Amino acid sequence: MKRSFTKYMKVFQKNAGNRSWVIIFTIILSILFSPQLISQDHNHDHEHEHVHDSDRQWLAGDHHIHSRYSVGWDYETDPPSPIIAGDAIYPTPMNALMARYYGLSWMVTTDHGGPNHSKVNLEQAYPELLTSRKAVPEVIQFYGMEFDTPGADHSSLIIPHTHDEADRLYEIESNFNKREPYPADSTWDTEPRMIEALQAMDQFPSKPVVIANHPSRSAPALGVYGLYDPAELRDWNDTTPDIAVGMAGAPGHQAAALNSDGSLIQYPRGGYGNFPTMGGFDQMTARLGGFWDSMLGEGRHWWITANSDSHVHWREGGSDFWPGEYSKTYVWADKSHDDIINGIRNGRVFVTLGDLISELYVTANSVTDEASIGGTIAVEPGSDVQITIRFLDPDAMNAADRNPSVERVDLIIGRVTGPVTDRTADTNPTTEVEARFYEDDWETDRMYKEITYLLEDLDTNSYIRIRGTNGEELEPEIDPAGEDPWADLWFYSNPIFIEVE
């Protein structure tokens, strides 16, 4: 089946410039490689708030995928004319088909903006998304964009699936995307304007989700920030804590060091040419006791994700993996638009690279309460809390035809001490690795591994989070240019908070 699919993909790529042919061929492929063609284009206006947890499962997805409507621009015309496939090259149905092929259950189309690009999204990208939903119904597809963020870098803007989703994105992009006006207007590129944009989104009946993408790609050094800085992200989260909910822990463009023949070139993972990634993760996430831990130490519900940032596949001269080929963001949800965005908003998320794991269950139990990833447990002072970590290390080849295995799992704990006085703070000195677990420390139930650990006599508000790796680095080290991305894999959970009452 895989060989046949690859053969069809080669035919597809040769004809990708013909829009009508692309749509027809995608539908044909969907029929060939799917049991049935059905529509999942339901209209909803409110998220599921009361889905029974037994209906939920871990659903892999990607919130940062570019289509051919991430355009180039012909500046010889006035105003500039969009050049379809001038930046990213694939039609949305192609992205969805590849997302399904690599095991994704959901995805978000996130095209860049530009001069009057809001009309491109509304008149061209959105109709193609509607077609894609019908052609590849097995993948829940969200409408969104990579917001050219005022006063910052890029961010994934995920629009809830409602009857007016296209109008909602048009409203945001046309009024706030910093590259929208022509001629360019520097007053659109300020941090206060982003706060204004978030406040406008907060008035929507169904609120979007905003995730800061590649937050340290412009950072020149460790702890020295560029287009994103700690105070700015705190301002976002303070303004709309249920919209500005987190950042990409692992950026896209992780295939940057791969030639089209699979050999390696001296290029940094993620395009992080200033200060490198660390184990494939951004420094804001990877540094123990760093920025992420400082946010969690305030008690903020600030979550991490991973994504492909797919523009052009590495076998075609690009620096990207297909959606799901390398990075996956798993959300604990039922398979619906509403519950998936609810899961992202509420941190029911873990991320992994290279299919190192495919399921992760973390629970904190006391005598009276229990919580899972993204949740909160309340305990009395002096209580013991049992942490249970259960993960699935699949005995299967990943997209690189390798079968990585988990070498070690870390339990990380930090104190929650409340709001910081210094808004630029990027450290939490209380964060530490509470315990490291190796193969001898876990029980095995088929492919599942289970670890239990007792936190004793807790007397202060805290959080715990989990990470794991296939390597031997005790802490994720700086990734050298030309590193094989498949050799250095990590997974991270979002936190569980422990409130001592």
DSSP, total strands: 22
Distance N terminus to C terminus? 56 Å
Mean pLDDT, rounded to whole units? 93
Largest sheet: 15 strands, mixed
Strand content: 25-35%
Cα gyration radius (Å): 22 Å
CATH level-four homologous superfamily name of the largest domain:
Metal-dependent hydrolases
Shape type = globular
Low-confidence stretches: 1-5, 33-43
Instruction: Give the CATH topology of the largest domain.
Output: TIM Barrel
- Quickly give the structural class: alpha+beta
| Number of separate structural domains | 2
Top CATH class of the largest domain: Alpha Beta
Number of helices: 10
| Percent helix range | 10-25%
CATH architecture of the largest domain: Alpha-Beta Barrel
InterPro entries: Pol/histidinol_Pase-like (IPR016195)
Transmembrane segments: 21-38
Protein name: Phosphoesterase
Keywords: Membrane, Transmembrane, Transmembrane helix
Structural overview:
With 501 residues, this protein is α+β, with helices and mostly antiparallel strands. It has 2 domains: 1-37, no CATH class; 53-500, Alpha-Beta Barrel (TIM Barrel), CATH 3.20.20.140. Helix content is 22%, strand content 26%. It has helices at 2-14, 19-32, 92-101, 117-135, 165-176, 191-201, 230-239, 283-286, 291-297, 337-345, and strands at 57-65, 72-74, 81-83, 106-111, 140-148, 154-159, 209-212, 244-250, 303-306, 327-333, 349-353, 359-365, 370-372, 376-379, 383-392, 408-415, 432-437, 443-445, 448-458, 462-469, 490-493, 496-500. It has a 15-stranded mixed β-sheet that branches. The chain has a 5-stranded antiparallel β-sheet with strand order 13-12-15-19-18, with no helix packed on it. Helix 2 runs parallel beside helix 4 (117-135), helix 3 (92-101) crosses helix 4 and helix 4 packs antiparallel against helix 5. The radius of gyration is 22 Å and the shape is globular. The model is unreliable at 1-5 and 33-43 (pLDDT under 50).
